[in-house]
Amino acid sequence: MCVDNEGAQPRDYEKLSEEITPDRQRDCLILILEHLKKIQYNETATHLQREASQVLNGFECADNMGFAQIVRDYEEHYENKHGRKPRFSRRRGGIYETSGVT
Question: Residue 41's Cα: distance from chain center in Å?
Fold first, then answer.
C-alpha cells in the first residue's frame, strides 16, 4: 500500500503496479542507472546494470533527458498547480523538519 503525495488516501499497490508498463519500468531503470553513474555511485550502478541487464539491453538514456531534469520539471509543475513544492522524502517516523535537506 502506498500513500499519495498529499498524504490523504492510501493507494492500492495493485492499482499502482498496473500503471507501470514494461516500457515505463525500463525507462525508469535507465534514468536511475544514468543518475547513479552521474553522481558516481559506480558500484551501485554496476549491480543495477547486472541485475537488470535483460531489461536494459540495447537502451540508453536520451540526450535531452535525465532524472534530475524530470524532478525539476515536476517540482515546477507541482508548485504552479498547488502553490508549494512537492515533498519527495520525509524523515522516518513521519517527522518533518523545517530546515535542512529532507
Answer: 16
